[in-house]
Input
Amino acid sequence: MKKTHIIAIIVIAVAIGAIISTISDAATYADFSTAEQFPNKEFQVVGQLNKDKAIDYAPEVNANEFSFFMLDNNGVEHKVVFEGAKPQDFERSEQVVITGVMAEDHFRAKKILMKCPSKYNDGKAEELIEITAESA
Amino acid sequence: MTEYIGENLIAGQIGELLIIISFVSALIATYSNWKISDVSIGDASWKRMARSSFRIHSISFLGFVAILFYLIYTHAFEYYYVWRHSSSDLPMRYILSCFWEGQEGSTMLWAFWNVFLANILIFTTKKWEGGVLLVFASVQTFLMAMLLGIFPFDLQVGSNPFVLLREHPDMLGLPFVSNPEYLKFVEGNGLNPLLQNYWMTIHPPTVFFGFSTTLIPFAYAITALWKREYQAWIKPALPWTYFGIAILGLGILMGGAWAYEALSFGGFWAWDPVENSSLVPWLVLVAAGHLMLINRKKMRSMFSAFALTLFSFLLVVYSTYLTKSGILGETSVHSFADGLSGQLIIFLLFYLFIALLALFSRGWKFLRKTEEDAFWSREFWIFLGALVLVISAFQITLSSSIPVINNLFGTSLAPPAEPIEHYNSWQLPLAVLVTFFVGISQFLKYKKTEVKPFFKQISPALIIALLGTIGFEYLLQIDAFFINLLLFTSLFAALANADYFVRILKGKIKRGGSALAHVGFALVILGSVLSAGNKKIISKNRSAVNLKFENNENANQENVMLLKGDTVLMEPFYVTYQNRRVEDKYIYYDMDYLKVNTEGKYEKQFSLAPFIQLNEQMGNVPEPSTEHFWNEDIFTHITYADIENLDSTALDKYREADTVKMQVGDSLYTSNAILQLIDFERSINMDSLGLLEDDIALGLNIRASTMEGESFNATPIMVIRGNQIFSIDDEIDVLGIRFGFGGVDPETEKLSVLIAEKNRNSSDFVIMQAIVFPYINVLWIGCIVMVLGSLIAVRNRLSKS
Output
């Protein structure tokens, strides 16, 4: 066997490895009910902040815990606890994407990505800006 | 028809005319260059035609650019683009950033560099002119089409930056549109606050300049395959390739510097899809440049050399597609509004088709003829190195293309939840291989190397690198295997190339370009490993209150709350939040970094002022502040601050008082002081307080001591008048505390003390994060050395030819 063949085989093997790892490391978009069925799997849930319910952040107690209620795109509501500081301007968010796992009574989010409406055009054209917050 | 007042319509009309001229002349230049190459070389009349049409294209396009600049400069908010991306209070130094913030502007920037390069190439390409300029003119035709903004058959072709604000689809029907004097009150929307940073004025032009240069080797390679000049193209294309490597590399790292300085994710690289899409063409260009080197005299791996050269440009177009089509949507901040995505796909597919056609109709035969390189030869290891770079590029492209994959196959994959870990798990081992190859290949000879002297030559670098790695491990206590390994190989690569430069090249700068560039590259990797791989978050939450997550191992402990005046340990520093300053639209938070000296007293080392940039339209942006030392950076940023109650009247109001039961001698903490109830105060001046003769008055002596050791006194008084009890409050204004004496509990004999604090006391806290980046300067020095080395190599090649 020639060197070129050995190299070619290695390259193909590595490339297949890369494809598999991309698929396996990718998170999955889901709603709360799916996330509840697989409690230890990581999901990304897209939804909206429920502005009528409490948004709790008490930095003097714990600067790294922040909780709120979110409605997913099917309208299912769940409490979300984020292990990090509350993102600036969180109340203004229109759309929230959270990444994390479902725990017993709440969704534990590692990452929050939110879209806020910017204030042009009297809110007519919905231009969204994105803010991410990450924990750990 | 409303007559609008104060609009400068003529400029936009000239602009629209110029873009049409630019488009048509680029098309004519494409056709005439095709004709030069098609007929015998040197067909004078077609050549004249090609050159003059490209000249017209250049002039009209530059005019087009100048008009947009002029409109931004004069705050002509009647134009949507100007209104959208600038405002009249924006400092002039950001005018460049306004220019390319939008979709159209960034296309114009790219086209501008193409024009610049093509006008040099007209004079330097000689017999390659027809082919190279054909490619350039055709690319310009595509780019101009993206700026046309015309609607044939209800189909949008391009978008034009001279659309009027009142005619923009988003504005239709808004009240101001029918107001003839709307310009009197319309104010621009302004520039994204994140882009208001000096790196942002130079990073995009540099990256786009790099993007443009990748078109040169592409154009040469296409011409070479077409004209069957399979080897001769390398010589003229090579200096441009290395020039592109230098510029694009510099541009990417400038983006890193910006991210490090202005973004608050705490680092210079986050594997963001947009960062990735500029890195990938660079990796492929580096691989292509190295394959061109080993194929310049003898064809060994010509097929790969062609393929990679062609793909480095195609990946630039793909990267533009990713960032401009809006497909990245939820995964990146950089995405633009869609609309051009169809045009970008046609652009990409067109050149992909041309490249594959050329490659497979002409290049196939190289694959079959490939001759085996000797194991101990430089070309073998260079080839392997290029291969590793391609694998690295493949992995990055694949993972950042998840939205594209979803679109093509209807899957619903989300990008990796832990992008940094995901990419690092691949890129660290690949970087180990690349740096190792960079270390050994200088000492390998072309064709065949004697093994014994080779090992003798690389052994000093190997030994010193091993010792250095052990040293760093001791200093930084690194335990991750691949980090250690990469530390070793990158140190080895830097030392081996430095050694080669000093011992073999005798320090001759002129010939040392490649060795220096490799030293620089190795230092960039070394600096990344040392700083990002060993970054230490020192703002650990040490408070005892962290109960809710006690069963969670990953509980986040990276943010700390600081009250104003608090001093908190962040090893090896103590950090005090001193003050909050509001200047214009920035809120600065002054943080003093202290150390305890030998006498046990705090000694100030330095101050940092991370800040929040207030921006009504686009959201408030926290920006970090960093103290630089030669061997480490201390990075500080605000993760949360209450900026709602900032106006002074709200801050000066007292909140509702708390009633506390105390005895003489008791003490108590408030947000900014320790209170002690010293004793009763019996000698009370009744007259000055306006009390009656029959009143009974009793005071309390309260002392408030601050953390800094200052003391203040207050004396609230309880008055008993008949069967009424009331309190005469006393306050300590400096501390914002008010005291009242509410009464005595007859059973327990405890005293009711009413304590109220001003809003200012509690809202003056921040949540902050502090990170130490060790040896990050190695990265920046590496970047400069790499760029200089590449440019020296380019110069050396040019002077040889």
Observations:
- The first strand of chain B starts at residue 413 and ends at 416.
- The radius of gyration of chain B is 34 Å.
- Confidence is low (pLDDT under 50) at residues 331-338, 544-555 of chain B.
- Chain B touches chain A through 59 residues (CB under 8 Å).
